[in-house]
Amino acid sequence: MMGHRVRFAPSPTGALHIGSVRTLLYNYFLARQSQGTLILRIEDTDQERLVAGAIDSIYDGLHWFGVGWDEGPREGGPHAPYVQSERLPLYQKGAQELVDNGAAYFCFCSKERLEQMRAAQRARGEITRYDRHCRNIPPAEAAERTKAEPDHVIRLKVPEDGTIAIDDLVYGHIEWPLSTIEDQILLKSDGFPTYQLAVVIDDHLMGIDPVIRGEDWLPSTPKHLLVYRAFGWDVPPHAHVPNVLGPDGKKLSKRHGATEVDEFRREGYLPEAMVNFLALIGWSPGTEEEVFSIDDLIQRFRIDQVQKAGGKWDRDRLNYFNGLWIRRLSDDELCARLEPFLPPAWDRTLVRAVVPLIKERMTTLVEASELIAFLFTDTVEQDPALLVPKKREALDVITALSRVTVLLRFVEPFAAAPIEQAISAVATELGWTLRDLTIAIRAAVTGRKVGPPLYGSIELLGKDRTLARLDAAQERLEP
Ligand code: GLU
Prior knowledge:
Elements: E1 5-8, H1 18-33, E2 37-40, H2 54-65, H3 88-100, E3 104-107, H4 111-123, H5 139-148, E4 153-156, E5 163-168, E6 172-177, E7 185-187, H6 195-205, E8 211-214, H7 221-231, E9 238-241, E10 244-245, H8 261-266, H9 271-279, H10 294-300, E11 311-312, H11 315-328, H12 331-338, H13 348-358, H14 367-372, H15 384-387, H16 394-409, H17 416-430, H18 434-446, H19 454-461, H20 463-477
Parallel strand pairs: 1-2, 8-9, 10-11
Antiparallel strand pairs: 3-4, 4-7, 5-6
Helix pairs in contact: 1-10, 6-7, 9-11, 12-13, 16-17, 16-20, 17-19
């Protein structure tokens, strides 16, 4: 189990996707638990799909999750460069090697010819695939033609019959008949490799073991296996991990809502909660336990406990974990995490004082500013519909609030416990339920129906502002 070399190999085709992060995490757990190596490799062979800023987004996202890696584009390492587009000579050399050993061949078919071929295949109701037109050109003749026909590609010579198989660490034994696999392109006319060539060369040269990647790569696996075979290389163990599915059972995508790491960050999710939640989509420790820190996961994760069935995305469960991890933060740490979500002008000492009051009630960090905004303004919006509890009259509320005002004026020190006593005394005196009275007071002092515990909030708001708001509420209800 010592020293696994694993890799996370995102394509910079957009912002970091939450499904990729789950695959990353499994690689990370395995690397760290085996004191191995995690490699970050950028797979940009599909130059048409590149998105500016995607590599920055990948770096930001990984840092946010607290995942560290050992070799990568900006870190360097013994197998640098770690960006595929900077490794073209390796792929070109590899493809030529396969031509030389007879496992691959030059193909000179024009786009037009291939289009006609496909149209004819479609017309006959056949699966469209390369008809191996150039496969039997004598090698010397083909080599000669490459000089005059720069548009050639290199294709793999896939054996006509037989099968190719893998014993996947998650999916078990899978076998594919070779008759279904076409002579795939390995090297394009612009000198770029196709993904099948690049991934195999890189995983081989970088010593990856095991290859852990998303289930969506399973259909491409026979192509990759054939490339290993053509080079005469051992195939490293592979683990395909099930897709993260949306609530409808389809692969998680934009139509299900947020999928980018940055969206969750902006919505106020904690990386701890996301790691816990994501790890459990598709992996289970085989017990009822469900709360795991990243360090616990490094200890506990086992690749053979990854399930075949896709795991479902469940926002309620993510919210549950987020609330749980918020409550596990110290008050100081929670303040630090809230920082990006708070207006700069708010007094941080007051924020620190109110944090213990809201910690129990928060699901996401973004909710905090709304819950505590009443502390940072001179006046609040007072809605008569909130000020008057059900089945009470506005005039009675005016009376009640004026009694509260009178009693609170004399509370000294102005602290939660004596404030509570004063308010209870008013409820008893007027024959009100404490619940109704606190509804009215909360609406008066915070402008809201729900919020942090009332007596502590009043203490933090201070006597002057509390009394002013109680007065204002009475005026507001005046007929
Ligand atoms: N570059 C691929 C992707 O972004 C990863 C493929 C692999 O892990 O083998 O999905």
